[in-house]
């Protein structure tokens, strides 16, 4: 005998595993198909009994003659095959029915090929039933075979036949236990993999939360501290300027108020970053259209003449789009103050029309710097990014009649649940 090479053994193992995987997937999709195929296979093996009239010979030698009509043989064969349909859903019941019919056939002195159903039945009890039921089923089957060989259907070599029958029965039960154990092992592996995945996700969330908390703490220590110092200096300078009657007191006071607002927003952002706000600032709502009046009033107090009007159902817009509008107007007016100065005038228009929102901010300034082409400032980049969240379009640049224009159109109306 030529030994099998390693590559041939590997290929054979791969084919067996592939066949096993295909069979398992097919059984999961159509579990009834395998049971039906098994019943047809046992039926095909039993055709010889119907042709020979059950009077040929048994598996271990000649049998005594048994004169049974064909309909009786058909009934006995069907009684041992049909219970296989329920072998997985009701393994003990199916096995009991098969054993009962087998006792009848043995009592009539015949040994049908459909008796293989006994092996399939004990296998099903071992694989799908309880261990207590398996012990009872094995004992009943052993008694059934002993009665058949030693009493009802004596063989020429009865003891040898009984030994082989009990060995075959034990092998079928053992195979069922192996399948049962392997299924439990695979289930345990799947459960363990699921638990490991959950633990991994938890570790990732904990690590992320720790890193977010560290970043928030550093931002609070550095940016928050510097903002607090700037606010203190601005307030002190404003008080000093007002005591001396200087005109710089009002801008310094506005610097202090703007710094306090920035510090409040920083605390809000850090509260979200930590995911555990500790004060009311972390729970306060984001600004919306109702806050534009205060924003424009603060900018107007710095010098520019600003007009503001709205049209359409702007108050019905969702919180997300209102925040986007507020930030776009805030950035545009900040650029107006930064580049056009305090002697300019500006117009802010917010128009809602059939789900689309247009934000227009124009001013009359003429001191805007001309940067390199294709390199917009950080403010315009932020405006474009916010508008992009709502499928928006941004037009920004100098006007023909002088000044600067920021025109944004948001196309997508927010979902109802965001309102």
From TrEMBL:
Repeat found in the keyword field: no
Keywords: ATP-binding, Kinase, Membrane, Nucleotide-binding, Phosphoprotein, Transferase, Transmembrane, Transmembrane helix, Two-component regulatory system
Domain DUF7134: 28-182
Pfam families referenced in this protein's UniProt entry, alphabetically: DUF7134, HATPase_c, HisKA_3
Name of the protein in its database record: histidine kinase
PANTHER family with a match to the protein in the record: NITRATE/NITRITE SENSOR PROTEIN NARX-RELATED (PTHR24421), NITRATE_NITRITE SENSOR PROTEIN NARQ (PTHR24421:SF10)
GO cellular component: membrane
Gene3D superfamilies xref list: 1.20.5.1930, Histidine kinase-like ATPase, C-terminal domain
Lineage, broadest ranks: Bacteria, Bacillati, Actinomycetota, Actinomycetes, Micromonosporales
Catalytic activity: ATP + protein L-histidine = ADP + protein N-phospho-L-histidine
EC number: 2.7.13.3
InterPro entries tied to this protein: DUF7134 (IPR055558), HATPase_C_sf (IPR036890), HATPase_dom (IPR003594), Sensor_HK_TwoCompSys (IPR050482), Sig_transdc_His_kin_sub3_dim/P (IPR011712)
Segments crossing the lipid bilayer: 32-48, 68-86, 98-123, 135-153, 160-179
Coiled-coil annotated spans: none
């Amino acid at each position: 005998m030529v030994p099998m090479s390693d590559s041939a053994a590997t290929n054979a193992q791969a084919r067996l595993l592939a066949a096993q995987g295909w069979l398992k997937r097919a059984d999961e999709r159509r579990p009834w198909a395998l049971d039906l195929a098994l019943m047809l296979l046992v039926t095909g093996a039993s055709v010889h009994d119907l042709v020979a009239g059950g009077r040929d010979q048994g598996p271990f030698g000649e049998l005594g003659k048994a004169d049974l009509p064909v309909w009786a043989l058909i009934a006995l064969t069907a009684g041992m095959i049909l219970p296989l349909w329920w072998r997985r859903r009701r393994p003990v019941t199916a096995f009991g029915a098969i054993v009962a019919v087998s006792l009848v056939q043995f009592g009539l002195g015949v040994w049908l090929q459909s008796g293989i159903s006994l092996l399939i039945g004990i296998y099903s009890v071992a694989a799908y039933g309880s261990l207590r039921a398996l012990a009872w089923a094995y004992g009943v089957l052993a008694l059934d075979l002993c009665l058949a060989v030693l009493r009802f259907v004596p063989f020429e070599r009865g003891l040898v036949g009984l030994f082989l029958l009990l060995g075959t029965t034990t092998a079928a039960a053992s195979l069922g236990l192996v399948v049962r154990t392997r299924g439990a092992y695979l289930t345990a592996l799947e459960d363990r993999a699921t638990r490991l995945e959950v633990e991994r996700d938890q570790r990732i969330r904990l690590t992320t939360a720790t890193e977010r908390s560290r970043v928030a703490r550093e931002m609070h220590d550095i940016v928050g501290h510097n903002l607090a110092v700037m606010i203190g200096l601005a307030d002190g300078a404003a008080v000093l300027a007002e005591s001396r009657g200087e005109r710089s007191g009002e801008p310094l006071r506005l610097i202090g108020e703007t710094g306090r607002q920035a510090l409040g927003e920083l605390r809000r952002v850090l509260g979200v970053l930590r995911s555990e706000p500790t004060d009311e600032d972390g729970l306060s709502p984001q600004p919306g259209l109702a806050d534009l009046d205060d924003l424009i009033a603060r900018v107007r107090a710095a010098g520019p003449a600003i007009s503001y009007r709205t049209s359409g159902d702007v108050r019905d817009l969702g919180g997300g789009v209102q925040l986007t509008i507020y930030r776009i107007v805030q950035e545009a007016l900040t650029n107006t103050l930064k580049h056009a100065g305090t002697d300019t005038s500006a117009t802010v228009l917010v128009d809602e029309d059939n789900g689309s929102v247009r934000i227009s901010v124009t001013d009359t300034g003429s001191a805007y710097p001309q940067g390199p082409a294709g390199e917009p400032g950080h403010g315009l980049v932020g405006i474009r990014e916010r508008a992009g969240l709502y499928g928006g379009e941004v037009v920004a640049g100098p006007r023909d009649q002088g000044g600067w224009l920021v025109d944004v159109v948001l196309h997508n109306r927010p979902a109802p649940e965001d309102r």
